[in-house]
Task: structure prediction
Amino acid sequence: MILAILRHIFRFLLLLAVQVIILNNVQLGTFINPFLYVLFLLSLPVQIPRLLLLAVALITGLSIDMFQNTPGMHASACLFLAYLRPAWLKIIAPRDGYESDAEPSIRKFGFTWYLAYSSLLIFMHHLLLFFLEVFRLSEFFDTLLRILLSSILTLLLVIITQYMSAKPKGTI
Result:
């Protein structure tokens, strides 16, 4: 239990550092902003209590907001992702259900399941985040393009990170 908590804290700090130090300083045009830090919320255990999930999402979003000077935008988007996550996990649950300590990953559930799981949640996170940032519908199509491109790049980075961090089968 303690080891799992320490692993999640390390993952949070690592993804926060990568987001703040590297990804926030990489210019990929005006339409593409990858937010790899959502991987932390996606990787939390399936059976995490809802209130704890929302609290962790709020802390995650506020941490990013502090470094990006975006008061509450990332916190709102992270809370939205955390709010949708349990219902989405129920909808895409395997036939046998989830193990009590299962963490969503490509290695555990397979590529197709993980793609369905992460793509919708990343898209919904970006949808709220970018519309809060613009806060007007006059730039609807530009914002929608930005949401799609950023979601695709974020999803690609999440999947690459999943494959890079996956342990080979048979190891502890």
In short: The chain is about 70% helix and 0% strand. The two ends are 15 Å apart (CA to CA).
